[in-house]
């Protein structure tokens, strides 16, 4: 009780210091220029309804001029690469609290490339080598650099010893099942939260580290790609309401969870985003913040197109499609919990916190194209009926064959007598399944490798405009479209091209839709069409 009081006082004190630093002034200038004002709680020109909303938010500090929002903040490996970055994020959390951010929870991924390094350590153990030196150095260096104390050092050393023992077991047994892999990678997040909590406490932000199962993150037993149990959100809500000191920031492991038998599971690569949205939705927080190393969701992968620009807002549906079709910035199903509860998700840059980032929320204005994304290394499969079966029989046989082989398809186009579809690398027809044999009983099957999917997240009520531009550009550059599909979600149009033409294709399209530098003259809607579009509800 006493501790809780001290923590609450400390948080209130923190919020009162640094109130209007130049940092906050900068935030205001840039947000009015770049963010959607309606959604940016730091924007002074916010609408009246937003003021009412603000007035209803609980304030824990005396200066009511700074509005508080209850958030969950998530930091990925790209934000936590080394000791310096752990410190930077801790200072960022502290300054965000001063600006009115009230994080109920901070979700952390493993430091830097730790998850990949743990997976590699597993492979090495199978080959007979057990070595955790690099991981030990990375984590202990951070503790040394900030003198985070003997207690933390012992805790991290104990986890590293447990990891080493586990790897010795793998070496001996020559076995690394999906269940063991989940246990193996869990060490990354278990170490990073303890270090983040220690650094926060050291700089005066009361914080406590939690393994996510202790705050109610329960999943099924699908190791490697587990699904959060429907009962989990209510458990999480109760634990936050009854057991977690509101004056303390809970630092929670992303990505990992427990199954009902208490075994460690993972939510799939990049799963910390989903941990954050699950907590944010369960506790009905005001905003879910996903902090990365880029200024939000960009019009295209910035590593592929240097001219990529940040997008100020996208709808939940658009963000989900972007992630599903390969934008490596968000976990594909992370949007779902936030979408159900209509809680805005903001993608921000931990290296550039003044930038307002991207807000993901309900659909608003229609843009011709919101973003371009791609998936490389896919297989295109053309399945043509040998007409042994009628149209119904043919399609149902094709889909049953995919179901039997448990292969999920990305893009599909069909007619009565043929189906073309794509499978990604992980689900190729050669991955030991019966698919081709089953299909060949009723169809001719052609498998084409080295293809890529380009997906335009676009306003599909304006498909003709989009397609006119795309095809003229492709024709001019001699890029052949091998298949075309418009998603049922009404936000995506996908093209299959040769993988070696992908970068050119995307660069030319990006120049048209985002850089005002198109190879062709963009088709222009007539004034009547513009008028109709503006005034049609
Ligand atoms: P973290 O693991 O820290 O959560 P990720 O590395 O998973 O972050 O995601 C951020 C990276 O995603 C960026 O560094 C960027 O290179 C890449 N990326 C790919 N496509 C996009 C896109 N459309 N918008 C923003 N970033 C993208
Ligand atoms: N550390 C995990 C990964 O690298 C989870 C995450 O970063 O979200 O996939
Ligand atoms: Mg990630």
Concise description?
It catalyses: L-aspartate + ATP = 4-phospho-L-aspartate + ADP. By secondary structure, the protein is of the alpha/beta class. Helices cover about 40% and strands about 20% of the residues.
Unique ligands: adenosine-5'-diphosphate, aspartic acid, magnesium ion
Largest sheet: 8 strands, mixed
Strand order of the largest sheet: 3-4-2-1-7-9-10-8
Structural class: alpha/beta
Low-confidence stretches: 1-64
The shape is: globular
Total number of helices: 17
SS elements, strand count: 16
Our Rg estimate from Cα atoms comes to 25 Å
Helix content: 40-55%
Percentage of residues in DSSP E strands: 15-25%
User: Between the first and last Cα atoms, what is the distance in angstroms?
Assistant: 55 Å
What is the residue-averaged pLDDT?
84
Secondary-structure blueprint of this entry?
Elements: H1 2-16, H2 22-34, H3 48-56, E1 69-75, H4 83-98, E2 101-108, H5 114-126, H6 133-145, H7 150-173, H8 178-202, E3 207-210, H9 232-242, E4 249-253, E5 256-258, E6 264-266, H10 272-282, E7 287-292, E8 313-315, H11 316-324, H12 335-341, E9 345-349, E10 358-361, E11 369-385, H13 391-404, E12 412-414, E13 418-423, H14 435-440, E14 443-458, H15 463-477, E15 483-486, E16 492-498, H16 502-514, H17 527-535
Parallel strand pairs: 1-2, 1-7, 2-4, 3-4, 7-9, 8-10
Antiparallel strand pairs: 5-6, 9-10, 11-13, 11-14, 12-13, 14-16, 15-16
The protein binds adenosine-5'-diphosphate, aspartic acid and magnesium ion.
């Amino acid at each position: 009780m006493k501790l809780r009081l001290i923590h609450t006082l400390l948080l209130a004190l923190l919020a009162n210091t640094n109130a209007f630093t130049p940092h906050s002034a900068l935030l205001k200038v840039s947000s009015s220029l770049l963010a959607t004002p309606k959604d940016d709680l730091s924007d002074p020109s916010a609408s009246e309804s937003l003021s009412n909303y603000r007035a209803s938010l609980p304030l824990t500090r005396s200066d009511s001029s700074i509005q508080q929002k209850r958030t969950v903040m998530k930091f990925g490996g790209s934000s936590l690469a080394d000791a310096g970055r752990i410190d930077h994020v801790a200072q960022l959390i502290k300054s965000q609290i001063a600006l009115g951010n009230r994080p109920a929870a901070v979700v952390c991924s493993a430091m830097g490339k730790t998850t990949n390094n743990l997976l590699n350590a597993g492979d090495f153990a199978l080959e007979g080598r057990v070595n955790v030196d690099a991981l030990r150095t990375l984590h202990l260096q951070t503790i040394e650099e900030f003198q985070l104390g003997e207690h933390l050092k012992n805790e991290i050393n104990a986890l590293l010893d447990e990891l080493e023992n586990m790897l010795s077991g793998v070496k001996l047994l020559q076995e690394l099942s999906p269940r063991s892999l989940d246990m193996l990678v869990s060490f990354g997040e278990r170490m990073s939260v303890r270090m983040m909590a220690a650094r926060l406490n050291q700089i005066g932000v009361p914080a406590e580290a939690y393994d996510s199962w202790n705050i109610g993150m329960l999943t099924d037993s699908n190791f490697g790609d587990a699904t959060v149990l429907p009962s989990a959100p209510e458990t999480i809500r109760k634990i936050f309401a009854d057991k977690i000191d509101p004056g303390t920031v809970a630092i929670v492991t992303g990505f990992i969870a427990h199954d009902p038998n208490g075994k460690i599971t993972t939510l799939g690569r990049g799963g910390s985003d989903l941990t954050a949205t699950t907590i944010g939705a369960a506790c009905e927080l005001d905003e879910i913040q996903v902090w990365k190393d880029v200024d939000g969701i960009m019009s295209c992968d910035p590593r592929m197109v240097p001219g990529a620009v940040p997008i100020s807002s996208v709808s939940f549906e658009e963000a989900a499609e972007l992630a599903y079709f390969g934008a490596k910035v968000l976990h594909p199903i992370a949007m779902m919990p936030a979408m159900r509860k209509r809680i805005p998700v903001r993608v921000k840059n931990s290296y550039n916190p003044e930038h307002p980032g991207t807000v993901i929320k309900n659909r608003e204005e229609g843009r011709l194209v919101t973003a371009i994304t791609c998936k490389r290394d896919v297989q295109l499969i053309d399945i043509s009926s040998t007409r042994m079966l009628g149209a119904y029989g043919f399609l149902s046989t094709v889909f049953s064959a995919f179901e039997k082989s448990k292969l999920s398809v990305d893009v599909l186009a069909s007619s009565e007598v043929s189906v073309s579809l794509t499978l990604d690398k992980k689900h190729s027809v050669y991955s030991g399944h019966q698919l081709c044999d089953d299909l060949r009983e009723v169809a001719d099957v052609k498998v084409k490798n080295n293809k890529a999917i380009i997906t335009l997240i676009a306003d599909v009520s304006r498909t003709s405009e989009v397609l006119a531009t795309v095809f003229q550009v492709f024709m001019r550059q001699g890029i052949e479209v091998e298949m075309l599909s418009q998603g049922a979600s009404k936000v995506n149009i996908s093209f299959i091209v040769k993988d070696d033409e992908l970068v050119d294709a995307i660069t030319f399209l990006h120049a048209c839709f985002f850089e005002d530098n198109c190879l062709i003259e963009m088709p222009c809607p007539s004034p009547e069409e513009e008028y109709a579009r503006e005034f049609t509800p």
